[in-house]
Design a protein that fits this description.
Layout: E1 2-4, H1 11-24, H2 26-37, H3 39-51, E2 62-68, E3 74-81, H4 87-93, E4 96-100, H5 109-123, E5 128-134, H6 138-146, E6 150-156, E7 163-170
Antiparallel strand pairs: 1-2, 2-3, 3-4, 5-7, 6-7
Protein name: Acetyltransferase
InterPro entries: Acyl_CoA_acyltransferase, GNAT_dom
Domain N-acetyltransferase: 1-172
Length: 175
């Protein structure tokens, strides 16, 4: 497993990744729809976001990565926001967000993906990352806790209309 920045070479893998969401988690599929509508523009936007170029209103620089297996399937996507300098991110969005494709869930890939992302966050100057999860999403909370996440509190989301568990996760590389 490795994390790869979004790239044109993964277009067919991205189509499969998207289709998995469309078939099995349509709510999350909408987040990736832009990549189906215009893949080139989508890759450019993600690349620009990592450099802090052409940011959409309210967005911060954000590095995107796809977790790719040895057969070049995209198993998941992870986003590392370089800062959380706005009310939404500092309260309920956090530094890091991720999704595992529905067909690859419950196999430990989320834990691996976050483990691979934490040194990248550290290289961006983040010593401890704020991560959040729906209070009832025990799988996501398990991913965070397996990577050293310490529960801060549970708050009622202002954008997400449900209780949100908030964690600090150290970004040190574990030997």
């Amino acid at each position: 497993m490795k994390l790869e920045p979004p790239s044109y070479q993964y277009q067919s893998a991205f189509l499969s990744f998207y289709q998995d969401f469309a078939d099995n988690d349509s709510r999350k599929a909408n987040y990736y729809r832009e990549g189906i509508d215009d893949f080139d523009a989508y890759i450019q936007r993600l690349t620009d976001e990592a450099s802090g170029i052409n940011l959409r209103q309210g967005h911060v620089p954000c590095s995107h990565f796809w977790m790719v297996d040895t057969e070049e399937n995209i198993l998941g996507a992870i986003r590392i926001r370089h800062t959380i300098d706005n009310p939404f991110l500092s309260f309920e969005g956090g530094h890091i967000g991720y999704d595992i494709a529905p067909s690859y869930r419950a196999r430990g890939y989320g834990k691996t993906m976050l483990k691979l992302a934490l040194p990248i966050a550290k290289s961006l100057g983040i010593s401890k990352a704020l991560l959040t999860a729906d209070e009832k999403n025990h799988a996501s909370r398990g991913v965070i806790e397996a990577n050293g996440g310490e529960l801060i509190d549970i708050v009622m989301g202002k954008v997400f209309p449900y209780p949100v568990a908030r964690y600090w996760v150290p970004c040190e590389t574990k030997l």
